Amino acid sequence: MIQNSFAEPERKAIRIACVEYPPFTLKDGTGASADMLNELFDKMGYNISIEVYPLGRVISMVNKGEIEAARLFPQTDPKVTVAIPIQYSSAVFVYKKSMFPSGINFKTLSDLQQYRIGALSNSKWTVKLLEEGAGLQLDFAPANDLNLKKIYLERIHLLPLIHITALSLIESVFPNKQEEFGLTKSFNVTPVCLIFSTKYPGNHKIINDVKKHLTKIDMHDILQKHFGKYFAGGIIPPYMVTGNNFYDVGSP
Q1: 93-187 shares the fold of 12-88+189-242
Q2: What pTM, to 2 d.p., does this model score?
Q3: Could you tell me the CATH superfamily of domain 12-88+189-242?
């Protein structure tokens, strides 16, 4: 049998752990984030599989070297992991326009102490950043769809959400009333990273390879392709690529 000497070398497969985050990462490993990662790694010459776990499990797996990589905010142990930013995420406050027709303006989070602010009951991020860090009044609920309904019923004033999540949630919960909600300027821009375990066999070579490839890949085009549809006008905001803070995101 004649061997094809021109056959492509076998592509290495990488497992990437993610946290369920509808509609961007679903329980079955599909979604816009998964599509983005598949295209990104295809350009680098790798096959990937997405595995979805709770946040604590994802962090533990990467720290212990039980999986090659994860897509997360940088929150793993830097002694045993390498975090490579691939995009940036930002938070905004959602408000009801009829309550605040002039919008909500602030220079620092502490400027918002006069407002009642919705929060998830189990959100350590919200408590640390807003309550402990800025002294804001938090009103807790078990789910953010309930918090958004409280905004609409004028029981709370503001709801902090990841920008892209805010857009999706408003469309889902109030599909015919999106124009009644406003968004503040963005704050707390944070990198979203590919986090590789240095304990996983062979990962040092992959880490160096990924870093090299990323210098040649236009992340704007990839992010625009997979996330643009979630933003007004179909255009991703500049902070997703640059990480620049306090970008005026406008209305949903």
Answers
A1: yes
A2: 0.81
A3: Periplasmic binding protein-like II (3.40.190.10)
